[in-house]
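Q: Predict the assembly, please.
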Amino acid sequence: MANQQPTTGNPKVDIEYRRKKNAEEMRYQVVTFTLMIFLTLIAFAAVGFGDLSKWFTVPFILLLAVVQVIFQLYYFMHMSHKGHEAPALFLYSGALVGFVTVLAFVTIVWW
Amino acid sequence: MSTYAQKKGVGAVIWDYLTTVDHKKIAILYLIAGGFFFILGGLEAMVIRIQLAIPDNNFVSAGFYNEVLTMHGTTMIFLAAMPLLFAFMNAIVPLQIGARDVAFPFLNSLGFWLFFFGGVFLNLSWFLGGAPDAGWTSYASLSLASEGHGIDFYALGLQISGAGTLIAGINFLVTIINMRAPGMTYMRMPLFTWTTFVASALILFAFPALTVGLFFMMFDRLFGSNFFDHTMGGNTVIWEHLFWIFGHPEVYILVLPAFGIFSDIISTFSRKRLFGYSSMVFATVLIGFLGFMVWAHHMFTTGLGPIANAIFAVATMAIAVPTGIKIFNWLFTMWGGSIKFTTPMMYAVAFVPSFVAGGVTGVMLAVAAADYQYHDTYFVVAHFHYVIIGGVVLSLLAGTHYYWPKMFGTMLDEFLGKITFWLFLIGFHLTFFIQHFLGLMGMPRRIFTFLPNQGLEIGNLVSTIGAFFMAVAVIVLLWNIVITSVKNVKVGNDPWGDGRTLEWAISSPPPFYNFKQLPLVRGLDAYWIEKMEGKKEMTPAEPLGDIHMPNSSFIPFMISLGLFIAAFGAMYRVDYAWGLPVLVVGMAITLLSMLVRSIKDDHGFHIHKEDLIDDKDKGGKA
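A: Predicted assembly structure:
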């Protein structure tokens, strides 16, 4: 995995390649971080400025939140790397089950 | 630790089992505890059937009947069926994937002791002022009104044993994802391993809903909250949703491993590769997925409205498709196979039509409009007993015969096994088939008696006679176990002669470190492939080396015991002043045990290579 430290004494480790990979990763992280701050500002703006109805604002902010979670998982928690298929599967299954539960509670429990 | 067999005293054996972290011994603990609760639940069932044998019976009082009925359901689901499945999962799954043990042996032990103390706590209610009496579903509006401590026993006992189940589920997930032997890809895993995997994922997602529901219940009853009290702004339907968001996946948690056991048995004794292996895997995963989308079909008459009812009805019927795939795959596996009718195979053959009967009534119940008629009648009782006994219990009995040699090194008597089978099968259909008609004639569920001259006498009498057949069958099985253990004739690696999967490539019972060298898996039915090439054993995937083993530990027992004591404190706190200190002491025992576990390093021990080499291995082979 690209985030592993080069172990000492192993001649097969290509430090140049590691460095390039890390630099690339760092760039993605900075870009993502900027995007996330930007999305947060939009969220504040949606509430603060303009007379948007809450039927637009609430789903809109939830959507931005979902995007931020995905950024967080893929660029900061390295889920984009290889070998994360099983955690991804379980994350998405869990999210789906949670979503269906919440959906049921807001639609058919408190009617 | 020595690898040589030693004669040990009774005390040493008991201490060994109290502290063990070995998956094979924990399997035996699960089997004994689950078997005990199975017999307890069976006795409760007999009380129910005796009471309903004739109209206007007064064998038990109405109140006691409610307790027996509640405890029968709760015991059978939580304390008998699940632990017995865990017994086989623990005994077989690590062997089937060629692992040394489960991923977290300490947690495995903790899971067992939590289940055990939770179960004991629940059953102590019989002696401490009355058992829970609001049905195994314990719907909030009824259970909040229940007097005495019965429902508190239910909420606290299930909370403790539920934590154990969740731990066991996570353990199997990690084991199956991370600890497969070299070459054991996902699509080479035996079906029992696959179904254990999917069932564990269901446990992971379903049990938190139960935990939340039980916490609400516990706080409503013991700590003055009002989650379910509509007069205080709560909502009683929340319990029903939380319970069934857990409860429906729960039935798949039970039946999927049962499917796995039968898939392995059918392919072994048909002496054929399982027909449509990949579609079996696909169907298993799909059933697991759909299992979360259908819970509200238990609540059609709650008043969810036609749209919700229609959605859940269609989703429910969709489950018949992957289940149908499985049924046909089992039939096609048998078709053209060279079938050997051993006891496990007879159970498997009987399972197919029995389970289909339960499935068909399931689709009938899924029709929301028709469900208003079936709702709360014996038709529903017949349906879920057909799927749970026809699916799960038959698989447990089949698995007991099939895996007994692997767990204990002796073969259960085949003749007695077949007597058990016929008595049980006849008794099961006699008891429950006629209940469909009792239900359609209008006999409601959960009534403690019925009036004469309403056409219900003969059906109920037949049903009770059938229950006695099943009781005799279980007694024959126990007798079989006793004489087999007394005779103690040891068998070899593959006593059925047709073993296909890795567990049959190792001695019965396996040594405590399992495979000396991890086996190399070259395809589905790994052991069968080697046999077909004339080999007697698996090719090793690694040179013989030191084996790292975990140390035994008494801490899981202490953690569970602490929660057991704390539960008494939490419950009696509302009546007596000593409740609170007992709660604190119990929690202190648990937390201190956890602290000891955290700060004391336990690196386990190594079995050295020199101790593992025997004469046969001098050439360096496995």
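The two ends of chain A are 50 Å apart (CA to CA). The helical segments of chain A are 15-48, 54-76, 85-109.
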